[in-house]
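TASK: fixed-backbone design
INPUT:
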């Protein structure tokens, strides 16, 4: 008989991305293969809140929510108490701290994070740039990029690039292969915008072996052998030292954590 599923409800009067990010980061800290996340966005009425809390009670789950409107937050709080459901207010305490510290009042307008302002269009432009610059498609874009990621195959270059692009940064990434000479342009760029990614041999063997399985190739393929991976990592490290760029070991890091390290160096 399979393990019982655990349900976490992510609720928001916008799209719920903030609460979902916190929940996903939390899940990664546990052996949580049996966790289901149910998202409820664009919540506008107290009846919707009541229905969600009742479902959470029935499934014995808990709720993480970001509700801007005080009446919806209060309804969530009351219903959670009534039905003995754990409900975590992710945005409320932060807003209250802002009010108490800076003596300011919130706009109480939902969806401000995603309104079509200049920053929104900058993010869209960054994503388009990053997609077109993925995996060394056009090395010349490195000149226009805010960040250039380097690394052997399967060191998280593409997902990390897209994550950073959604933060508004134009990212170019380039795969390093010992048999291919890196673009001379790399040596003309400011080392501060270059980031070299590396990973432990065992971790990379595991990731590449899963990749071979997914595409139906034999496990004995050179791509996933220890000797080949050691060669690629040594080649990458030598290049990083020549470029004088920062180096990040992504073996045990989530995409968000790696991105945080990169952005911290830029601040």
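OUTPUT:
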């Amino acid at each position: 008989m399979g393990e019982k599923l655990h349900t976490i409800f992510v609720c928001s009067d916008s799209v719920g991305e903030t609460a979902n990010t916190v929940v996903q980061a939390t899940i990664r800290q546990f052996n949580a293969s049996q966790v289901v996340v149910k998202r409820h966005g664009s919540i506008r009425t107290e009846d919707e809140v009541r229905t969600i809390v009742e479902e959470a009670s029935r499934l014995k789950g808990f709720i993480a929510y970001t509700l801007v409107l005080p009446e919806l937050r209060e309804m969530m709080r009351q219903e959670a108490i009534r039905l003995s459901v754990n409900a975590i207010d992710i945005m409320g305490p932060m807003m209250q701290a802002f009010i108490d510290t800076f003596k300011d009042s919130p706009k109480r307008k939902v969806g401000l994070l995603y309104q079509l302002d200049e920053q929104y269009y900058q993010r869209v432009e960054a994503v388009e740039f990053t997609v077109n610059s993925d995996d060394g498609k056009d090395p010349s874009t490195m000149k226009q990029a805010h960040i250039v990621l380097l690394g052997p195959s399967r060191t998280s270059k593409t997902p990390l690039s897209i994550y950073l692009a959604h933060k508004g940064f134009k990212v170019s990434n380039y795969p390093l292969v010992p048999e291919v000479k890196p673009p001379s342009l790399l040596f003309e760029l400011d080392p501060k915008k270059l980031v070299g990614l590396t990973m432990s041999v065992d971790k990379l063997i595991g990731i590449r072996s899963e990749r071979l399985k997914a595409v139906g190739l034999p496990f004995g393929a050179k791509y996933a052998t220890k000797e080949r991976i050691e060669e690629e990592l040594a080649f990458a490290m030598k290049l990083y030292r020549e470029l004088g760029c920062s180096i990040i070991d992504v073996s045990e890091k989530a995409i968000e954590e790696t991105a945080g390290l990169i952005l911290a160096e830029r601040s």
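COMMENT: The chain has a mean pLDDT of 88.
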